């Protein structure tokens, strides 16, 4: 059996399958900071406010002086932000705030509506400030699209990471953000609980979000989806985005790609190159409902989209409690979260 059902090339936006809506890979080689959290470099030639140019291997995105995404609304889905390098400053209409760093994950349920900002402060003024971020949009089923918004931080100190060695001692590391890793030692790779209204919180949804690292020459067996036999429609996508060559069963892949895999069977992965292979795995049982999307709003019908636009114009989804549309949380590389209604910050464990 061929383990690969379909292959698609990777670009800035990666192809997804239901229940996932969107996957973006931001990989920016930002220069030293200018002391005001922006780049110590000219912004000439960029379309400030909408800069996706990759000029000099970085973009300002919608930021004007600090790169990132100033205040913008969402309704009807969730964002899962996996930070691999750099810092992200979060602020939202619930009053929540956070600065998170490499290895941390933010999971935000937009539900009936939230406004948030995601800024990329360049804290180091004497050295480059690389940033690498994977952002995933996970759909919500119709019954949960108008759930209360929910802000969650998964600190890297608490996210399960399972390091396994093959017969030759070569390591494979699996980071388990959602969905327990089948056949792992008991308790070794049990994920943190997803937000309560998430599709990932439903056992039958079979959602998994893992990142994989395979050392050169390493072998690792990707287990079958936990409920694939019961839910034959469970689907999984493996994004091969770093390294030279990856074998999946008998099939060798030599270009970075999104690979939809057979989910109901184990497959042996092998790194046949000389550099570390890195992958993201997204898996889930499809929600299987109509998707109506208009920018940051994802509902089931066009009339619900019109209602979302009207609600946002009328209520601003609770308003924006911050003095600027692009808050940055100071010069110190201090990771923290301030949850809605809290007066003090919580720090990583």
TrEMBL record:
Residues 223-318 form the Pirin C-terminal domain. Residues 59-138 form the Pirin N-terminal domain. It holds the Pfam family Pirin. Its cofactor is Fe cation. Binds 1 Fe cation per subunit. Fe cation binds at residues 72, 74, 116, 118. Keywords: Iron, Metal-binding. Gene3D superfamilies: Jelly Rolls (2.60.120.10). Belongs to the pirin family. This is Pirin. The lineage of its organism: Bacteria, Pseudomonadati, Pseudomonadota, Betaproteobacteria, Burkholderiales.
């Amino acid at each position: 059996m061929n383990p690969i059902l379909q292959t698609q090339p990777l670009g800035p936006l990666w192809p997804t399958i239901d229940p996932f809506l969107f996957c973006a890979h931001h990989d920016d080689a930002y220069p030293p900071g200018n002391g005001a959290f922006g780049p110590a470099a000219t912004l000439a030639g960029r379309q400030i406010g909408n800069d996706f140019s990759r000029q000099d291997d970085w973009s300002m995105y919608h930021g004007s002086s600090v790169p990132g995404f100033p205040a913008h609304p969402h309704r009807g889905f969730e964002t899962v932000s996996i930070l691999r390098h750099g810092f992200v400053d979060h602020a939202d209409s619930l009053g929540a705030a956070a600065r998170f760093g490499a290895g941390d994950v933010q999971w935000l349920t937009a539900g009936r509506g939230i406004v948030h900002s995601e800024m990329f402060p360049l804290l180091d003024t004497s050295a480059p400030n690389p940033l690498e971020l994977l952002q995933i949009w996970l759909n919500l089923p119709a019954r949960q699209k108008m759930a209360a918004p929910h802000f969650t931080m998964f600190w890297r100190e608490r996210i399960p990471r399972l390091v396994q060695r093959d017969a030759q001692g070569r390591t494979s590391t699996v980071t388990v953000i959602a969905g327990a890793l089948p056949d792992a030692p008991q308790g070794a790779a049990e994920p943190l609980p997803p937000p309560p209204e998430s599709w990932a919180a439903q056992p039958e949804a079979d959602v998994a979000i893992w990142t994989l690292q395979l050392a050169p020459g390493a072998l690792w067996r990707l287990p079958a989806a936990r409920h694939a036999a019961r839910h034959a429609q469970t689907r999984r996508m493996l994004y091969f985005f770093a390294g030279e060559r990856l074998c999946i069963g008998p099939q060798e892949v030599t270009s970075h790609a999104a690979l939809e895999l057979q989910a109901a069977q184990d497959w042996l992965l092998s790194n046949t190159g000389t550099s570390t292979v890195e992958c993201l795995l997204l898996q889930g049982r499809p929600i299987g409902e109509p998707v109506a999307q208009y920018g940051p709003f994802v509902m089931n019908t066009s009339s619900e989209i019109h209602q979302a636009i009207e609600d946002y114009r009328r209520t601003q989804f609770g308003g924006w409690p911050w003095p600027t549309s692009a808050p940055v949380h100071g010069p110190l590389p201090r990771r923290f979260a301030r949850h809605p209604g809290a007066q003090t910050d919580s720090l990583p464990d």
